[in-house]
Amino acid sequence: MTSKNKIAALIMFLIGALIFWWEARKTNPHQMLHDLTTLNWWWLLVGAGIMFLSWVCETVVLQIMLKSEHEQIPFHEALRIPLVEQLFNSITPFAAGGQPAQLFAMLQSGIEGGRASSVLLMKFVVYQFMVLINFVFTMIVGFERLSIHIGPLAWLIVFGMLIHVAVIIGLLLVMYYYRLTKKLVALCLVPVGWVLGQERRAKMAAQLDTKIDTFYKESLHLKKEKKKVLMAAVVTLLQLLLLYSVPYFVLLSLHITHVNIIRVMVLHIMIVMIVSIFPIPGGSGGAEYSFKTIFATFISNGAHLVLAMLLWRFLTYYMGMIAGIIAVAVQPKRKAKQLPDEPHDE
């Protein structure tokens, strides 16, 4: 972990502390202290365990996609990869550092670069589809009723959904309409040349062409691995459901029992969608504001709401950063395990 990354992680922790202080400044400190001392720590531990299980599911997805006739990666080696991803997702804008960090961690474990890139592509496509499925269900079940209470945030939720739909459409276009995609990209870059100049436009076009070519080549592997993709999709869906359920256990730890787990998950899906469009690492500021605004619909006590926000943020964000820092510090002990060839009958 470079000094730049260490500074970024420290800054995010400090920003989190500052946001919590800002949100808590108007609450009764005695009430918050009382809520903290009477916390049901068992439910909080369940929430932490649920979050850990979501990382385990992501690890299983990696193992499913990496497993071949002659190679597999041990579970403890594979677990390190999503934890490293958690850290770099948390300290980079739009979680842009997660993919390169995973690739580097996989190379450290002895996985060939081309295969690692192909697996990460499959994982990304599956994840995006599962996120979209969850969100569409959420929009059908709870958006109309919730939008009455959250005002402008409703538009951010819709905007987040449109971004995810655009990403899915872009992926499908490259996978199934490769030449058409390249023509559409070239057409979209024409106005760029008018504003930034033809030299900049040509440079951007070359970079995008390279990325589209790489993605298309890797997508050919995706089409051949239908069984793996289906298995990964099921486990990814479980991973997301576990993640979305974490706030429910936070509320139970605060003795807030008049909540329905499905409704809490619906609310959390909407928060995650809003956070994904904030450019600040971890969606800091936007995440906390979204949580307070959305969960205020059934938590009237200000101290309860601020403490719930803090505990939720710790479990879903800072705990991943801490685990990621540990994962980066622990170097792989062995390379990807090579399995002996299966004996063939003469």
From TrEMBL:
It is an enzyme of class 2 (transferase). Signal peptide: none annotated. It comes from the Bacteria. It is found in: Cell membrane. The keyword Membrane applies. Its main location: membrane. It is a multi-pass membrane protein. It catalyses: L-lysyl-tRNA(Lys) + a 1,2-diacyl-sn-glycero-3-phospho-(1'-sn-glycerol) = a 1,2-diacyl-sn-glycero-3-phospho-1'-(3'-O-L-lysyl)-sn-glycerol + tRNA(Lys). Keywords: Antibiotic resistance, Cell membrane, Lipid metabolism, Membrane, Transferase, Transmembrane, Transmembrane helix. Catalyzes the transfer of a lysyl group from L-lysyl-tRNA(Lys) to membrane-bound phosphatidylglycerol (PG), which produces lysylphosphatidylglycerol (LPG), a major component of the bacterial membrane with a positive net charge. LPG synthesis contributes to bacterial virulence as it is involved in the resistance mechanism against cationic antimicrobial peptides (CAMP) produces by the host's immune system (defensins, cathelicidins) and by the competing microorganisms. This is Phosphatidylglycerol lysyltransferase. It comes from Lacticaseibacillus pabuli. The gene is mprF.
